[in-house]
Design brief:
The complex is a heterodimer of chains A (417) and B (120). Chain A is α/β, with parallel strands linked by helices and 417 residues long. Chain A is built from eight helices and 29 strands. In chain A, strands 1, 2, 5, 6, 7, 8 and 19 form a seven-stranded mixed beta sheet that branches. A five-stranded parallel beta sheet of chain A has the order 10-17-11-12-13. In chain A, helix 3 packs parallel to helix 4. The radius of gyration of chain A is 22 Å and the shape is globular. Chain A starts with a strand and ends with a strand. Chain B has 120 residues and is of the alpha+beta class. Chain B folds into two domains: 2-45, no CATH class; 52-113, CPE0013-like fold (Roll). Chain B is 18% helix and 37% strand. Chain B is built from two helices and ten strands; from the N terminus they run βββαββββαβββ. Chain B has helices at 34-45, 78-86, and strands at residues 2-6, 15-21, 24-29, 48-49, 52-58, 64-69, 73-74, 89-91, 99-101, 111-113. Chain B is elongated, with a radius of gyration of 18 Å. The chains are: A alpha/beta (417), B alpha+beta (120). The structure holds flavin-adenine dinucleotide and iron/sulfur cluster (SF4). Iron/sulfur cluster (SF4) binds at residues 7, 9-10, 12-14, 31-33, 35-36, 39 of chain B.
Chain lengths: 417, 120
């Protein structure tokens, strides 16, 4: 059994930021366990720019952003095990992992940070008629083929889902000479950042069809085409609107799911909406000493926010390790009237620092107000030009506001049109 | 004349309104920071984009290394830049910031590596 103060599961931007913050706070023995061959996580394949503007004040590509943190980790005495897969986290914070050199290993930790990221919703999660010819893959898989393996998976492409990875891949494949025929989105709005619609689709004249889906795939060994159709308000295909589109590749960009198998096994309570753990403002789960951050907690579209969140978790873990983490009186936060979820789900009213509540809305709002309330009193109300499901928002709860709350209080965030 | 744009300079994607008279920009509103102002003015006169792609690498751990343009390139030169980059091959080892193609198409912009490849 190897003894550590802090074990970090996952070496993406979340795991690295949490480990670095804990180190900065004085935690001595820290280890990062990463199943891939290098640190960096999914950023290694995100070669477009747009990372780090908030955090570094410059626009970096994914590998550059990750590279900055990898360099920082290398300068510390944080232990790193790559090619190492974590199999289990036990109730008493023993982390079991395996790799080819060391075989099965056990790490006894005072605190654990879960930073396993997310994975893409696979085709199985969708119901499309047709056999399973080659040429159907998630947008992230295509991203890896093109950007890491240097191989183009197809020439005529249809993309289902307008998540950011799908939009980014529409541009990427177009630049590499493929013809991206259409991006179909089931919902009446796009799930991606507006800037990505502008610079990945509009720039290249790629049509985005909202309220539209793929109902059938054609081809036996290799995809030959797809049938798309418009959908009604209940998201059901409208008969008579079918259209055949010839293509050899169908990319799916239909959402990301936090990778929480390990969290479930150790009995961490998950939020039904985020599919990530329920946490307090220090990003501690309901299991003492187990923290979570990054995409395993909630799907982020900006890595800068991943870093910010993970530093909070790293600080929380350090405080826990040093026995400084205060107990307190925790109350719930709740999203209502258009707010789908809030992270953190629990807040300590004895806390003496300002904190941010992150949330997502369920539909597009123009000129609506974000209203924060507690016990019938409006704490803040701010008008936003635009709110969209694809963009994570936040509101600030000040220490002053917390002082006025009691153990029966509940903080709600709602949208007022 | 008014024109509505979305600033693509950062992921915030601010909606911007530009007022144009006789081909000249009179006012820019809606931007959160000054990059938005610059973006809107460029978008009316000479739209530019930063380019990210990959270049073939010999003896690399991976067959390609990601690259970016050191500054923005005119939007209508993107495909020309792509064909120059796709006909190039570099040799590992490569590090972040290495200039892969200098002054591409004479645009005053370099193509630089954005990841490491230690080589095999
Ligand atoms: C395919 C894909 C493409 C994306 N593209 C973009 C994009 O273009 N732009 C953007 O802003 N955001 C993108 N994202 C979102 C992006 O993931 C986040 O911005 C950020 O990288 C999340 O950081 P993270 O550390 O939480 O997760 P990740 O970067 O996913 O890192 C998690 C790490 O944990 C490791 N891990 C998981 N389980 C285990 C285990 N059991 N044992 C050991 N290690 C484990 C993984 O190997 C991985 O390295 C993308 C996400 C995905 C899934
Ligand atoms: S105006 Fe500034 S903050 Fe807004 S999108 Fe552009 S760069 Fe980002």
């Amino acid at each position: 059994m190897l003894n550590y103060d802090l074990v970090v599961v996952g070496g993406g931007p979340a795991g690295m930021a949490a480990a670095l913050k804990a180190k900065e706070e004085g935690v001595e023995k820290i280890v990062i366990l990463e199943r891939a061959e290098t640190l960096g996580g999914i950023l290694e394949q995100c070669i477009h720019t747009g990372f780090g503007l908030h955090y570094f004040g410059e626009e970096l590509s994914g590998p550059e952003y990750a590279g900055r943190f990898i360099e920082l980790v290398e300068k510390t005495d944080i232990d790193v095990f790559t090619d190492t897969m974590v199999l289990n986290v036990s109730d008493d914070n023993v982390v079991t992992a395996v790799n080819n050199n060391d075989g099965l290993m056990q790490f006894k930790a005072i605190a654990v940070v879960l930073a396993m990221g997310c994975r893409e919703r696979p085709r199985g999660a969708l119901s499309i008629a047709g056999s399973r010819p080659a040429g159907i893959m998630t947008a992230g898989t295509a991203q890896k083929y093109v950007n890491i393996d240097g191989y183009m998976p197809g020439k005529k492409v249809v993309i289902l889902g307008s998540g950011d990875i799908g939009l980014i891949m529409a541009r990427r494949m177009t630049l590499e000479g493929a013809e991206v025929k259409v991006v179909c989105e089931l919902m009446p709005y796009s799930g991606g950042l507006t800037r990505n619609i502008v610079q990945c689709l509009d720039d290249f004249g790629i049509p985005l069809r909202l309220s539209c889906t793929v109902v059938k795939t054609h081809g036996k060994d290799r995809l030959e085409g797809v049938t798309i159709a418009r959908v009604d308000e209940k998201l059901q295909p409208i008969p008579g609107t079918e259209e055949y589109i010839e293509c050899d590749t169908l990319l799916l960009s239909v959402g990301l799911i936090p990778e929480n198998e390990l969290s479930k096994d150790v009995g961490v309570e998950l939020d039904r909406v985020t599919s990530g753990p329920v946490v307090d403002e220090y990003r501690e789960t309901l299991k003492p000493g187990i923290f979570a951050c990054g995409n395993v907690l909630q799907v982020h579209d900006l890595v800068d926010y991943v870093t910010e969140e993970s530093q909070i978790a790293g600080k929380g873990a350090a405080d826990y390790i040093f026995g400084k983490k205060k107990g307190g009186t925790f109350i719930n936060t709740k999203g209502v009237d258009g707010v789908r979820y809030i992270v953190p789900q629990r807040v300590n009213i004895e806390g003496d620092e300002n904190l941010k509540l992150y949330f997502r809305v369920g539909q597009v709002y123009m000129g609506a107000k974000v209203v924060v309330e507690c016990d019938g009193e409006v704490l803040s109300s701010r008008k936003k030009v635009k709110l969209a499901p694809g963009e994570m928002e936040n509101v600030v709860i000040t220490a002053e506001m917390l002082k006025k709350m009691n153990e029966n209080s509940e903080i709600t965030v709602r949208i007022e049109e | 004349m008014k024109k509505n744009l979305i600033c693509v300079s950062c992921p915030l994607g601010c909606p911007i309104e530009v007022e144009i008279e006789n081909g000249e920009v009179i006012s820019v509103t809606g931007n959160t920071c000054k990059r938005g102002d610059a973006y809107a003015r460029a978008e009316i006169t000479n739209p530019v984009r930063s380019l990210t792609t990959s270049v073939k690498v010999e003896n690399g751990v991976h067959p390609v290394v990601p690259v970016k343009s050191s500054g923005p390139v005119p939007k209508d030169k993107m495909f020309e830049c792509m064909s120059v980059i796709n006909s190039a091959t570099i040799k590992a080892p490569v590090k972040i910031g290495d200039v892969v193609i200098e002054n591409i198409l004479g645009l005053g912009v370099d193509i630089v590596a954005t990841n490491f490849d230690a080589g095999i």
